[in-house]
C-alpha cells in the first residue's frame, strides 16, 4: 500500500506539472506528501484527484493545484525562512510548507480541525511547525515578522494586521473577494505594499473569531 500511495502522490505531482506548476521543489513536496492521510477515510479514494474535498465544519482541503500554485508564488519571493499560514484546516498545505520553509507558524480558528492536523503532522515527522488556535484575522503578532504569509480562506478585504506582520520584502498570498474571488500577491516595500492579481479562485470565507 505504501508503494501505491507514493506512486499516487508522484502521479499527482506530474499532473500538476502538466497544468503549469514549474517549481521543482514544490512538485517534490507534493510527491512526498500522502494527501489521503489528510482527508476522511471515506474520501481517501479521491485524495489524489485534483479537486477540493470537504473536511468537516464547513471547511475544505484545497485543490492540489491551488496548494501548489500558492506555495510556488510564496517561493518566488526568494525566502524559505519563516512562513505564517492562516487556516490550518486539514494540515495538508501546512505539510507542504513544512517541507519547504525553515519554520511554519499556522493559525486555525476551529479547535477540532487544529487537533486533527497536529496529529497528522506528527505522523509525518514534520516538527518545524508551531500551531495556534485563534483568530486568523489577527495573524500571530508574537511570532512576527514573517518572510511569507499564506491565507487559505477568502476575506472580502485584506486584513491590515497581516500586511503589517510581513518583513520588508515579504510576500502575502491571499484569495480576496466574496462572490467573485481573485488570488492576489502582496509584497512589502518599507511601508508600502504592492499587489498583483494572479487568477480567479474559489475559497470558503475567512471568518473572524475562534471556535472551541
UniProtKB/TrEMBL annotation:
Keyword terms of this UniProt record: Cytoplasm, Methyltransferase, S-adenosyl-L-methionine, Transferase
Catalysed reaction, written as an equation: [protein]-L-isoaspartate + S-adenosyl-L-methionine = [protein]-L-isoaspartate alpha-methyl ester + S-adenosyl-L-homocysteine
EC number, as in UniProt: 2.1.1.77
Annotated localization: Cytoplasm
Active-site residues, Swiss-Prot/TrEMBL: 62
Lineage top rank: taxon: Bacteria
Catalytic EC class: transferase
Primary localization: cytoplasm
Coiled coil: none
Entries under PROSITE patterns matching the protein: PCMT
UniProt function note: Catalyzes the methyl esterification of L-isoaspartyl residues in peptides and proteins that result from spontaneous decomposition of normal L-aspartyl and L-asparaginyl residues. It plays a role in the repair and/or degradation of damaged proteins.
Family membership noted in the UniProt record: Belongs to the methyltransferase superfamily. L-isoaspartyl/D-aspartyl protein methyltransferase family.
Protein name: Protein-L-isoaspartate O-methyltransferase
Species this protein is from: Alishewanella tabrizica
Amino acid at each position: 500500500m505504501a508503494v501505491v500511495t507514493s506512486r499516487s502522490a508522484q502521479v499527482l505531482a506530474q499532473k500538476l506539472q502538466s497544468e503549469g506548476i514549474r517549481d521543482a521543489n514544490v512538485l517534490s513536496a507534493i510527491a512526498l506528501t500522502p494527501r489521503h492521510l489528510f482527508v476522511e477515510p471515506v474520501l481517501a479514494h479521491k485524495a489524489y484527484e485534483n479537486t477540493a474535498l470537504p473536511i468537516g465544519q464547513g471547511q475544505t482541503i484545497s485543490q492540489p493545484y491551488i496548494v501548489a500554485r500558492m506555495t510556488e508564488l510564496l517561493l518566488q519571493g526568494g525566502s524559505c525562512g519563516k512562513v505564517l499560514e492562516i487556516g490550518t484546516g486539514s494540515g495538508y498545505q501546512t505539510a507542504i510548507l513544512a517541507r519547504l520553509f525553515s519554520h511554519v507558524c499556522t493559525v486555525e480558528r476551529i479547535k477540532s480541525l487544529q487537533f486533527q492536523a497536529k496529529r497528522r503532522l506528527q505522523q509525518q515527522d514534520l516538527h518545524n511547525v508551531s500551531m495556534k488556535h485563534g483568530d486568523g484575522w489577527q495573524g500571530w503578532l508574537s511570532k512576527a515578522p514573517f518572510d511569507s504569509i499564506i491565507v487559505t480562506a477568502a476575506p472580502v478585504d485584506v486584513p491590515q494586521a497581516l500586511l503589517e506582520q510581513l518583513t520588508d520584502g515579504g510576500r502575502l498570498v491571499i484569495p480576496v473577494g466574496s462572490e467573485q474571488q481573485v488570488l492576489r500577491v502582496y509584497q512589502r516595500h518599507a511601508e508600502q505594499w504592492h499587489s498583483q492579481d494572479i487568477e480567479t479562485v474559489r475559497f470558503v470565507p475567512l471568518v473572524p473569531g475562534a471556535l472551541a
